[in-house]
Amino acid sequence: MSEAGFSLNGLAGKGTLHTLELENFKSYKGKHVIGPFSRFTAIIGPNGSGKSNLMDAISFVLGERPSSLRVKKYTDLIHGAPIGKPVAKKCRVTMNYKYANGDIKAFTRGVNNGASEHFINGQAVTSAAYSQEMESINIFIKARNFLVYQGAIENIAMKNPKERTQLFEELSRSHEFQAEYERLKVDMTKAEDDTQHNMNKRRGIAQEKREAKMEKDEAEKYQQLKNELAAKYTMLYLHQLFHCERLIEDTKKDIDKQKKNLSSLESTKSKEEAKINSVHQELRKVQRDVTKLTRTLDQKESALSEKQQEMLSLKVAVAHEHKKLDTAKKMLAAAETKAETNATQLKELKKRRQELEVKKKAYEEEIEAVRQKDELNLSDEQVQEYEQLKDQANRQSAMLQRELVAARQMFENDQSALNHELRRQKEQQDKVKAKESDVQRLERQIQALSQKIKETADEEKALKDNLKKIETEVVVDKSSAAEYNKELITVIRQLSDASGDTAEGERNQRRQEALDGLKRAFEGSVFGRLHELCQPSHKRFNIATTKILQKHMNSIVCDTEETATKAIAFLKDHRYPPETFLPNDALVVNPINEKLREIRKPAGVKLVFDVINVQHQGARKALQFVCGNSLVCETQDDAKQLAYGGTDLKDRYKAVSMDGTLFQQSGVMSGGVADLKAKSKKWDEKVVKQLRERRDFLNEKIADLSKHRRRELEAEQERAKITSSAMRLKIFKSELKSLQEDQLQRVQNELEGMVAELDMFPPTIAHCQEKVDRSKRELQDLETRSNEVSDQVFADFCARVGIASIRDYENREMRIRQEMEDKLRSFDDDIQKLTYEIDFVTEQDGNRKVEAEREKVNQIDKNYKNKKKEEKKVADDVAKKLEDMDQDKSSLEEKKTLAAKLETEWNEMKKASQSQMKEYNKAEKEKIRLESLLTKKQYERHSLLHSVKLGQIALPLKAGSMADVEYEEDDAVPDDNSSQMSQGASDGPSVSQEQIQREQHIKINYDSLPREYKEEDEEKQVRDNTNKLNAEIDELQKNVSKMNAPNLKANQRMAEVREREAESTEELENARKKAKKIRQQFEKVKTDRYRAFHGFFEPVANSIDDIYKQLSRNTSAQAFLGADNMEEPYLDGIQYNCVAPGKRFRPMDNLSGGEKTIAALALLFAVHGRNPAPFFVLDEIDAALDNTNIGKVASYICESAREQMQIIVISLKEEFYNKADSLIGIFPYPAACTTSGILTFDLTRFKQIGLNEMTENPPTTSSVAIAATS
């Protein structure tokens, strides 16, 4: 690296950038020292050489972030990092800053291991200390008042007003007051609001104080009237209670007398009832026995039916096995018959064969005797001569003898073959006759089986017709039973669904009996249960109305309180479950609020009373008592709006939605849809009775139809018979098929084969006969020739012996032998034929078939006996069950007779006890009347005490306390062990006997009651004095009501108001002091912020027009810098506008690029002139300027700015950089990674030579570079 230096002349005032030291920073590999920098230094070089990297180096050492240096992280600043080959792990830039006194301070910033580090004069410092030291020489990196990057000059001109304000805040350092300013401003606003609040509060308390005084005066007057009214109330209630208690005591005495009378009657009645109950219990026991026996009989009948069906099946099976056994025995008999026939035939054949063998033997003996007897007697010499001559003849006719032997052999062979064929023909004829017999036998069996099949088929058809008839009847009965059962299930389900509280349990039956008894006992006075006397107008209201009437749906409506009291006594006497009564004369019903019928919003709102149809006029008042002014709405939201929507309780109503959700004015909400749906079925209770009657009818019909199960048994019997018949028919058909298709066909085929074979014998026999005839002729010819030779040889011998020829001797021998052979052959043929027949009969082996048939018979007989045994067992069981059922039926009839007898006795005893019951009931009614009167007066006393307690009336007492007077809410559910009456207002209290007993401890002091009130004997006198006291109370009440209800705590309120008045005065004063203090602090900060901002902004605004004129070189150019908010300019924007020479005013964004650059430079120079940084670095600000504007800017810098600041510019235009004091040239080295080299050149020495010489022969850039290098 070459380093060139030049001196700075006339550097006065502030310090300057002296030199830069770069080490491995971006494209600057190794260490480089650049400088010293002159007052006006230009950096030049070709594109891509690293000029902007030098600008980045200056920005880096002054504190810029990596993002402003065109890299993502610090390590990218190291040389070689862009191509992944950094030359080192760190890089460094050092700025040597030279103060006006000549001192130099080194500011160093580097990158080491990916982190930034800072040094001042070689000492490591923090980033904050580094920035603070920079700000001490007027270098503010955030404001960038000394740096203009490439392409950013126009952005300075185009800043919006708020951005300009922020720029001036940074430069003037007024932003340092911003946080405190905003905090104090918020505190001041809050303090002023508190002051105003306390002032308003104090005014309100003063007004409240005046009102409290007026209330105090009214309260004193009101209290005087109230005291008078309370005294009158005390007198009224003492008067009423006195006479009420006296009547209570008198009634108690009467009740005691009546109880004694009833006790005597009770004893008699109890004895009669005990007898009646004993008979009734015995009757119920017998009835239970009847029911139990009936159920047992049904079960036994069902079991008997199953056993009978089983017995029937066994009977069918036994009959089937018996028929099979008969058939098998017949087959065995046939087999035995055939076996006997075969044995007889075999014995006969063997006998005949034995006889033939004997005859054969006798014949042979006979032949031998004849042969010996008829044999020619020759001497030995003659025999020897005969033999010699025979040999001689044989030798002479040797050839002929051989031919003769061959011909005789052939003849014998042919004759043997013929005999064999004739014998075979005879055997085949016998076989054909036997097969024909078999065919005839099979045809007879087939005919018999066909007849059986026809008879069995007819029997099966008749059984099927009968079964079809029975099944039709059974199907009709079953269909009817199924329809009845289906309807019964529907009826039972309807009964179950409708039985929310009407389930047919014993308790509900008892309640229904109780109601029926009350209606009979108090005919015309007891109307029925509430839900029976009315009906919702539409089913969609069922659930909602059920919710409102929920606890009173089962309440009994009657005419008077007296009737209700008697009815309660009736229930107790007959031990019926407790009930709730609604006596019409005791119900206090509030009138219907007519305006509720006019509600239009929400839509569909109706009074519950209006959606229920009253079906008995006696229930109208009770229904109105229960419903009150309740409303029914379409949805829960509508009901909730009516119940909670009003701010005043008078505008809130009890409302229920269609799904049963209830909203009360007090805020209580309740639901229970599932339970309500079940209970809403009570509206259908009127049809329950009809459903029950229908159920009973259906049960009877089903019971009647169930008797037809016997027809099913008959059907089963018929099916068993059909099955047996079908099985027999199947067996017969199978046997017929076997006979027709297997046995008969096989035998016929065999017969046809045998006949075919028999037809083949005649041609064969004829052929054999021809061969025999031919052989015989040939044999005869040869014998003739042989005889001729023999006659010649034996001629002498025959003459001596005395025979005609030697053939006579030989023929006799041959004849005898031939006859013997023929006879013997005949015997052999007959014996062979008999042997064949014996073998054929033996092969049929009838005994083996007999054994097979006998085994089959034994097996079937065994099955038959087993089935018969099972049948007998089941039959015995059926008989036993029938006997057992007969005994049960007999017992049942006895029980029914006994039940009828007991029921008659029970009815007679009940009738006999009615007179006693009438007398008892009369006494009981009198007692009930007295108890009812006592209860009424006790309730009246309770009501009076309750009114005293509610009205807070001072009542003099001898004993007890008014704390004992309590009441239960109307919503309480009555106890199951006690009946009760609903009386009073629809929203009033109810009272129990326990409460009455507690109130007996209250003893009233009547000393203050005047004598005239105590001595009243007649009811009229009591009523007149009561009316008099009520009139006086009404008069006082009117006077009190004319007055507005005063505040009874007026004195307490007055003290509280005075106390709060003092507190509010103190709070107001404290708030004023606090607000004043915060305002003073805020004004001070505001003034300091304004002075800092205005002190910087005002000089800039005043000088910018002159600077713009100088830059434009035209006095007509105008520049204006003004704040939108003159009082506090830092809160709003700053407007900057310029008018170029010779042009009209246009917004800044409508100016040309050169005009924007000039405007931006004017602003920068103006700002720099107010708070100048030691140097100014501009990167290619001349890019958008033409040569004229470049000359203007260059002239301004040379003439004006050079003396005020040090300027460093990067430029590519010679018109600009040739005005500089020195040049720094940047050039690239050829390498894989861009590497920059540096050249410096001092232009001041050329300016000293003279402008003329420089003008005539200006040095070129290249020559400068060469000179600098050399």
UniProtKB/TrEMBL annotation:
Give UniProt keywords alphabetically.
Cell cycle, Cell division, Chromosome, Coiled coil, DNA damage, DNA repair, Mitosis, Nucleus
GO cellular component terms attached to this protein's record: cohesin complex; nucleus
Please state where this protein is localized. Answer: Chromosome; Nucleus
Task: Kindly list the biological process annotations in GO that this record carries.
Answer: cell division; chromosome segregation; DNA repair; sister chromatid cohesion
GO terms for molecular function, please? Answer: ATP binding; ATP hydrolysis activity; DNA binding
Coiled-coil annotated spans: 174-473, 688-940
Locate the compositionally biased regions of type Polar residues. Answer: 976-995
Main location as per UniProt: nucleus
Has keyword Transcription? no
SMART domains from the xrefs? SMC_hinge
Domain of life, per the record?
A: Eukaryota
Region Disordered, annotated ranges: 970-998, 1004-1023
Record carries keyword Coiled coil = yes
Q: Can you give the residue ranges of the SMC hinge domain?
A: 524-643
Any one Pfam family here would be: SMC_N
In which family does this protein belong, per the annotation? Belongs to the SMC family. SMC1 subfamily.
Designated name of the protein: Structural maintenance of chromosomes protein 1
Which species is listed as the source? Caenorhabditis tropicalis
